[in-house]
Amino acid sequence: MPTPGSPSQELKKLVIGPKGQASPAESDRFTALVNPASMNYTVNIVFAEQNAPGTDGSPAVYSHTQPESLSFSLDLDGTGVIDPSAKPVPEQIEQFKKVTLQYQRDQHKPNDVTISWGTLAFDCMLRSLDINYTMFKPDGTPLRAKLNVSFVGTLQPRETEAAQAESPDLTHRVLVKAGDSLPLLCQRIYGDSRFYLEIARLNGLVNFRNLQPGQELEFPPILK
After folding, report:
1. Given 1.25.40, 2.60.40, 2.50.20, 2.40.30, which CATH number is that of 15-154?
2. What is the pLDDT of residues 132-186, one digit of tens each?
3. What is residue 171's predicted lDDT score, i.e. its pLDDT?
4. Cα separation of 19 and 154, whole Å?
5. For the whole prediction, is pTM greater than 0.90?
6. Measured between alpha carbons, how far is 28 from 47 in angstroms, rounded to an integer?
7. How far apart are CA 64 and CA 204, in angstroms?
8. Are the C-beta atoms of 123 and 154 separated by less than 8 Å?
C-alpha cells in the first residue's frame, strides 16, 4: 500500500471518487474538508488448523489472505470557520453517501470507489460508516460531525486469480489449453510434476496424455 500524504508545497485534499477515474466531476466525488490526522491499514492472513485430536500445535498452513482494509476519520464543519464556502453538514454527509453508498443495480452492490491522497490510491468499497454529531444550531441542525469510516479493498477477478494461481494450498479448477499436459500443469501448481498420476486418478482420466482443450480439471491441495 502506498504511503499517503507525501510532502508537497501544495495542500492536497483526500478525494473519494468512482473507481479508476483520475479527475471525477465535483458532483461524483467527496473531497475532505480536513485531511485525516491518521489512517489505519489492516491486512489479515488466515491459517488453516490441521491439528489432529489430542495433539499439540503444528506448523501454520496458509489458507487465504483477507481483503485489505483502510479506516480513518473525517471532520465535517458547517460553521464557516474552516471554509466559509463549505456546504452545510447534512449536505456534506449526503454527498459522502451518494459517492460511497449508492447501489449499483447492474452489479448488485454499492459503488466501487478509489481513495486518492498524495501517493495513496486505494480501490475499495465502503464497509462501515459511523456518524458522530458534535455541534448543533438551536433548531437542531448539525453544525459539526465526525465520520468514522472503514473501507475494504477490492480486486478484480483476474487479479484474484493471478494472486492465487501459484498456490498449492488451494483447490484449482483449470481449463485445459492447447499444449497443456498433466505433468506441466502439476509442475505449475504444485511445483512438482510427479503428482500427475494422482491428479489423473482424482479426475477420472483414462488417458492422461490426451488432454482436450476446454476440458476442466480439478487440482486439490496435496500434502507433499
Report:
1. 2.40.30
2. 999 999 999 999 999 999 999 986 544 444 444 445 455 677 888 888 889 988 8
3. 62
4. 10
5. no
6. 40
7. 28
8. yes
Query: Read out DSSP for 114-171?
Result: EEEEBTEEEEEEEEEEEEEEEEE-TTS-EEEEEEEEEEEE---HHHHHHHHTT-TTS-
Mean pLDDT, to the nearest integer, of 32-55? Answer: 81
- Assigned C-alpha cell, 168: 498449492
The type of residue at 58 is S
Q: Which three cell numbers stand for residue 149?
A: 469510516
What's the CA angle centered on 99, arms 97 and 22, to 5 degrees? 155
- Structural fold of domain 170-219: Membrane-bound Lytic Murein Transglycosylase D; Chain A (3.10.350)
Query: What are the boundaries of each domain within the chain?
Result: 15-154, 170-219
